[in-house]
Amino acid sequence: MKIPPLQQEFVLHFGEMGSRWGINRTVGQIYALLFLSADALNADQITEALGISRSNASMGLKELQAWRLVRLKHVPGDRKDHFTTPDDLWEIVRILIEERKKREIDPTLTKLRALEMQGPAGDDYSEARISELREMIEMMTGFYEDMARLETEKLVRLMTYGSRIAGLIDKVGGVFPSKNR
Pfam family of this protein, just one (predicted)? Predict the structure, then answer.
């Protein structure tokens, strides 16, 4: 299976970016290949297209399935498992944000809450900073949860309003909660 030049460039870029996003190069390339593929691909096709080992392809597919970014698709008349990505770009973005929140934000929030529960440690400044950080993360996750509940159409509309909303907040005299130090 030969990858056309446009796809090849995209796949290579995703591989390079993978390490910056916290995944390895091969996983990024597998995802990019599946993302651009009109048809679901099996592990042998992925292995051939990317020039990687079968075990590397299998491990990458398992990681992408754990992230819910690829889906198993059965092809009539073929006993092999085939894989594809969701068609809806907004669904992909929502999955990525949700999974990153689950893996990165939630454990940090849990730790901050646990530190606060330990009670006074005699370090007022550190305690205040931990509390301030927890409050900010809770506010951000609350905003995320509000946005996650919106239908895609409404979310897109909201995003297109962007700076106009900020201007409206300024006009109405909106004040964001903050703590002065």
Answer: MarR_2
